[in-house]
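Methods — Computational structure assignment.
A single polypeptide chain was analysed. Its primary sequence is given first, followed by the predicted tertiary structure written as structure tokens.
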Amino acid sequence: MRIAIASDHAAFALKTTLAAWLAEHGHDVLDLGPDSDARVDYPDFGFKLADAIAQGEAERGVALCGSGIGISIAVNRHPAVRCALVSEPLSAALAREHNDANVMALGARLVGEDMAKACITAFLTTAFAGGRHQSRVEKLGAPPLPLAKEPA
């Protein structure tokens, strides 16, 4: 499977470790950066990851920042991408099974290397259940507009 991976500076070390681990397990890894732990802005790398997934350059993505929150918000700005912030294998599996998530986000300051690997394993080995979840997932890519009521 081709996996895109991106982070900010806070998660650079974990990204490097996970990219190598994924490659060792036979995956084709598209490392979207950064190339060092120098300060960068997570939205830039989240947007790059989302675009790679939406363009079909990778089947799944792993997004990392200090908490996982900021980069997951950035990734989710793209309507073709469903990014779930996970912290343990069950949430990673449910993100795939119920939400057909194509990207998972992790907080490098919140999960260790072994837990990150367990989450990725669950994410990559769980299939989307379809069925009753299908119509809900379809709605995620095409929200009704306007989403917010105009201020009075």
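Note: The longest strand covers residues 2-7.
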